[in-house]
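Lysine transporter LysE, pasting as requested.
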Amino acid sequence: MPLLTSLALSYALVLVAPGPNLLIVLRVAVRPSWGRRLSVASGVASGAAIASYLAAIGATTLNMVDNLDLWASVVLSSILFYSAVRLARRPLAGAPAQQLGSDSLSLRLYSLGLATALSNPLSVPFFVGLYLAQPDFSTGMGEAAACIIFLMAFSWFTLVGCVFSIPVIQRLDTIWTKTAQAVLAAAMGLYGLILLYKHVL
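Structure tokens follow.
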């Protein structure tokens, strides 16, 4: 129990820090619906849980981090650039009805969240470092840790999506809404450029 509590507290600090997962969730929250929010949140949570489990079973192989870092940065940069362009070109429209939506859309948003979380170059190194400091995780507690990571990430990103989807925010003046979309798109593009500069160029 103390180990799992330590994991939860450490991961809570990672969750609240701005990063690509948050940017993608906010991008989806621009046009809110329960289906969109839950799909992307569950995708991000699944990706974080998978990264946690992979780190737990391979924490002693530090070369894994170096090999994944470059490719993860390229994939994540591509996702962020694509999302930034989509958001910048998106016309303003009324919020859709609060419904689950099509299975195809839900799958795409889940895949978007999953790919973003898995390609985040900070995720696996964070978990590897944590598990190297606490080797008991890799000797039988990896599954429990992954479950905790999933529940924490899913709860947090669903909450963030709900907060930024409340009617008061969605009914802001058109100028403010356009500004918010432009700032978010610019943040995603800038984050993608920083990743490429650090890990590729």
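Note for the archive: Residues 2-199 form one domain.
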